[in-house]
Amino acid sequence: MLTAATTGFITAFSLILAIGAQNAFVLRQGLAKQHVFWLCLLCATSDAILIAAGVLGFSAIVAQFPNLPLYMAWGGAAFLFVYGAMRLWAAYLGEYAMQLSGQSAGLWATLATGAAFTWLNPHVYLDTLGLIGAISTDFPAGPERTAFGIGAVTSSFVFFFGLGYGARLLAPVLQSARSWRILDVIIGVVMWALALKLIS
């Protein structure tokens, strides 16, 4: 079960790590020290709901559509390959101007924006219901698959709260073009590795 939990943690963490609008928003709020706890809780809980749906419900869907995992694996692999290529291209270009200044909105406006970044992002459904759900089928139903899901959910909470509260400490590093370039290279390689895992 430890292997399953570790796989779930690493898989979800690698997917969440990809810098996007949601993460940039959490980072911005962390730097501004505005509504950090509630925003991180919202993002992590939303991920937990979607991950649970993917892990628990994917096998039932597969029973009705046996070829679905194959189609999703190839579709997911294509997305991961393209996204990985985009991150590597961004690292090559080295353009990382971050605009994190500005006034902070109220709590409800902040949560509404965070919810929009989460639930209106089509990639989150591919990541949680699709990719994580598909990878979870590598483990037998029961304790091992549950451990995989718990590992994935845990990584979401660790990431968002780490990003939100660690933003001030990371600010000088993340504002360095070299650091962003290294991060994008790592993300690109991880995305390609996940793509190969899906179709192997």
TrEMBL record:
TM region(s), chain numbering: 6-26, 38-65, 71-93, 105-126, 146-170, 182-199
Subcellular location as annotated: Cell membrane
Name of one Pfam family that matches: LysE
Any one annotated GO CC term: plasma membrane
Keyword Isomerase part of the UniProt annotation: no
Bilayer topology term: Multi-pass membrane protein
Keyword annotations from UniProtKB, A to Z: Cell membrane, Membrane, Transmembrane, Transmembrane helix
Chief location bin: membrane
Keyword Lipid metabolism part of the UniProt annotation: no
Highest taxon, organism lineage: Bacteria
GO molecular function: amino acid transmembrane transporter activity
InterPro entries, A to Z: LeuE-type (IPR001123)
Protein name: L-lysine exporter family protein LysE/ArgO
UniProt source species: Cognatiyoonia sediminum
